[in-house]
Specification:
This protein has 197 residues and is mainly α. 77% of the residues lie in helices and 0% in strands. It starts with 7 loop residues before the first helix and ends with a helix. It has helices at 8-30, 33-40, 44-51, 54-78, 85-94, 102-114, 119-143, 149-168, 176-194.
Length: 197
């Protein structure tokens, strides 16, 4: 007789999404097991079973958020066309169809705030952000091989900063012109590379 399939992965995802939403709303210290349980529609003991104590909760969140960003970055790169990747990259990053969850960005921000007192967390968050910036720089460098590497890296840094800023402030329901200006600033960085000799 075959038992019913495990819903462990589904349950894990349900709990992690609830954790991310709670941390985005209340911060790391304000996200209680009771709030996470309520958000997930599960019992507090079940949440504790999956997330453990406060330190384990932070480690679990860190692993989940950083893995999600890495997977999203990989998917973004894989979805770019064979040529003109930089232009399409900016279109994707600043489009309304962008799949980055503001809650996920806010959870990352909560982790970075906690990183002040946790060297391991600081290192992991820094490495994730720098890896994303390195990916953006590599895409730009492939389209602009003759442009000075420092200029390409500066443009990549600016594009990443504009992207994270626009995404993390999305919950404020900023005016459309504000998002448009962020995209225009990113395009100006891109256009500056196009105009290099």
């Amino acid at each position: 007789m075959i038992g019913r399939p495990s819903n462990r992965d589904e349950r894990y995802e349900q709990i992690m999404q609830a954790l991310v939403r709670c941390v985005a709303r209340y911060g790391l210290d304000g996200a209680s097991l009771s709030q996470i349980a309520k958000e997930a529609g599960l019992t507090r003991p079940l949440i504790r079973h999956h997330l453990g104590n406060r330190d384990e909760l932070i480690t679990t969140l860190q692993d989940y958020v950083l893995k999600s960003f890495s997977e999203q970055s990989d998917a973004l790169v894989a979805g770019l066309p064979a040529s003109g990747k930089s232009r399409h990259l900016i279109d994707l990053l600043f489009s309304d169809m962008n799949q980055t969850s503001p809650d996920m960005v806010l959870a990352f921000a909560a982790l970075t705030a906690r990183a002040v007192e946790d060297a391991s967390l600081r290192r992991a968050c820094r490495e994730a952000l720098l890896a994303f910036e390195t990916t953006i720089a590599a895409i730009l460098r492939a389209d602009f091989p003759n442009v000075d590497a420092a200029k390409v890296n500066t443009a990549a840094h600016g594009i990443v900063a504009l992207y994270f800023n626009a995404t993390s402030l999305a919950p404020l329901d900023m005016p459309n012109v504000w998002k448009t200006q962020a995209e225009q600033a990113a395009r100006a960085l891109f256009n500056g590379l196009e105009q290099e000799p």
